[in-house]
Design a protein that fits this description.
With about 375 residues, the chain is α+β, with helices and mostly antiparallel strands. Helices cover about 50% and strands about 15% of the residues. Helix 8 packs antiparallel against helix 9. The protein binds flavin-adenine dinucleotide (FAD). Flavin-adenine dinucleotide binds near residues 122, 157, 367 and 386.
Length: about 375
């Protein structure tokens, strides 16, 4: 297997690097100081078509694979930028693409590809369910030609900057003898017409991210906005997880490269005790170890991506890629802070910002503990812990 980038993929990475050069550290620092959304960055990526590369050409997208999307997100993060403000459009759209009706695809995908419509929000997590997704209590009741939805979601990112939200709801209670995964459904909510039925409240978090509590009261959603079959929504959500894990792994790999490249350069130039700090193995080796870990995670990520693009099962590989990449980026983040010393804490160097940002990948969209449970139980056949 050869996971070197093709010429086209290499050109793509260079093009992304060029775009991201317009958004240096100072852009992200200025936004963070006022808690603002990176609108210009998201608009630029949208207008250049990078966020729609996974949408098939027949709907006006790039028609490319997850491998190319991985290259794009990695390069964004390698530059020091952060795709969290817009990455969900890539994988959220996949649920509509794979499970939506022909009418839904026609109604939404061309407008998303053209940058006229944003599908950036994905509402799964609830305060009292947490990682145990089947325990969600947001309910949708069918009344004639629509659903009436009531409930609460938490940590729903980008909802204030999205026109549409995919929402996981319970449409029927867990029935005796049926798995708890049954009875969940996915609705496509048009936030532009939701009015007071959807209220949001921003959750301040440790980096400049736009994530919200979402309160839904008597929201009417047309029945035609149900994705796929009623009660089968959990399956559709799971179906999107592999893509999400591969893409998030790519962002973490980009962060890892950012830390390693910056740390190696800084450690080579910062002179203390008459020599560069990087000449000391206590500084040099952690950077080298992190580099090896990032490169290894990258191989697993490309392996998962090639299986995904070949329509082969890739649950284990996508999960391992997410686990290895988030661990490697965190390792690289720590090596970088050590190499920078006090300057690692100074905002102007950009390290502390990325340090806070990259920690997220160990927790969301799924925590690494749950990834290990998946590997231990589903792949290795050990007993379930829950
Ligand atoms: C910044 C941010 C953005 C987010 N954006 C979104 C979004 O857009 N949409 C959305 O739906 N969600 C979003 N989330 C939610 C995210 O997916 C969850 O935080 C994540 O899945 C973990 O769930 P939890 O926070 O409820 O942790 P909990 O489930 O409460 O778990 C707490 C800790 O216990 C561990 N744990 C729990 N059960 C087990 C077990 N059986 N074995 C071992 N360890 C266990 C977990 O690994 C975790 O470390 C976001 C979260 C954050 C922080």
């Amino acid at each position: 297997m050869d996971f070197r980038l093709s010429e086209d993929q290499q050109t793509m990475a260079e093009a992304i690097a060029e775009v991201c050069a317009q958004f240096p550290d100072s852009y992200w620092q200025d936004l963070e100081s006022i808690g603002a959304y990176p609108e210009k960055f998201v608009r630029t990526l949208t207008d250049l078509g990078w966020l729609s590369i996974l949408i098939p050409e027949q709907y006006g997208g790039g028609g490319l694979g997850i491998t190319e999307a991985a290259v794009v997100l990695e390069e964004i993060h390698r530059s020091g930028a952060n795709a969290n403000a817009c990455h969900a459009q890539m994988y959220t759209m996949g649920t509509v693409l794979r499970h939506g009706s022909a009418e839904q695809k026609q109604a939404y995908l061309p407008a998303i590809a053209a940058g006229e419509l944003r599908l950036q929000a994905f509402g799964v997590t609830e305060p009292d369910a947490g990682s145990d997704t089947t325990k969600i209590t947001t309910k949708a009741r069918r009344v004639g030609d629509h659903y009436v939805v009531n409930g609460q979601k938490t940590f729903i990112s980008r909802v204030a900057y999205s026109d549409l939200m995919l929402l996981l709801v319970r449409t029927s209670p867990v029935a005796e003898g049926q798995p708890a995964t049954e009875g969940l459904s996915v609705l496509l909510v048009d936030l532009r017409t939701a009015g007071d039925a959807v209220e949001i409240s921003r959750i301040p978090v440790m980096f400049n991210h736009h994530t919200y509590q979402v309160f839904v009261s008597d929201l009417e959603v047309p029945a035609e906005n149900l994705i796929g079959e009623e009660g089968k929504g959990f399956r559709y959500i799971i179906d999107g997880w592999n893509a999400e894990r591969i893409l998030v792994a790519s962002e973490a790999i980009g962060d890892g490269r950012f830390f390693v490249e910056r740390a190696a350069a800084y450690a080579s130039s910062r002179v203390v005790f008459g020599k560069p700090v990087g000449a000391n193995q206590a500084v040099q080796f952690p950077i080298a170890q992190a580099y090896a870990a990032v490169r290894a995670a990258s191989l697993m990520r490309f392996h998962a991506a090639s299986l995904f693009d070949g329509r082969e099962p890739c649950g284990a590989e996508a999960n391992m890629a997410k686990y290895l990449a988030s661990s490697a980026s965190w390792q690289a983040a720590n090596a970088a802070i050590t190499a920078y010393g006090g300057n690692g804490f100074a905002s102007e160097y950009g390290i502390e910002r990325k340090f806070r940002e990259t920690k997220l990948f160990e927790i969301a969209p799924v925590s690494n503990n749950l990834v290990l449970s998946y590997l231990g139980q589903r792949v290795l056949g050990m007993p379930k812990s829950y």
